[in-house]
């Protein structure tokens, strides 16, 4: 981590507002749940992968004083990805508890992780670290949405 990034993290950790649920990144994971809930009430499938990104970017751009122009986006992509990982893990664990095909689900998820890593490494090779971060975040969000839809009663 760059020195400026570390200093930003330390300063933001000490001054993070309560609305961010203690997250110094500026990303509020509740934005994901709000997007998914809004889509559900409208009876539609929404692409919620970018939920919360605008607010996060606004927050970070106000707080970050370093010289890395990619830091705000990288910070928010990582925080968003982490929130989606939490969501995916919860959905996956629920599916394992209630499903008959637990071993099949495990194999499918392992294959998906391999697929995501290959796909997103290719994104890094062609578009750099930010492209990789977007890919990881977007693919994790899609998988969480897919598992959620498979778990819903038909």
TrEMBL record:
Identification of the protein by name: Lysozyme inhibitor LprI-like N-terminal domain-containing protein
InterPro entries the record matches: LprI-like_N
Organism in which the protein naturally occurs: Paracoccus denitrificans (strain Pd 1222)
Keyword Coiled coil attributed: no
Domain Lysozyme inhibitor LprI-like N-terminal as annotated: residue spans: 71-145
Highest taxon above the source species: Bacteria
Keyword list, A-Z: Signal
Signal peptide feature range: 1-21
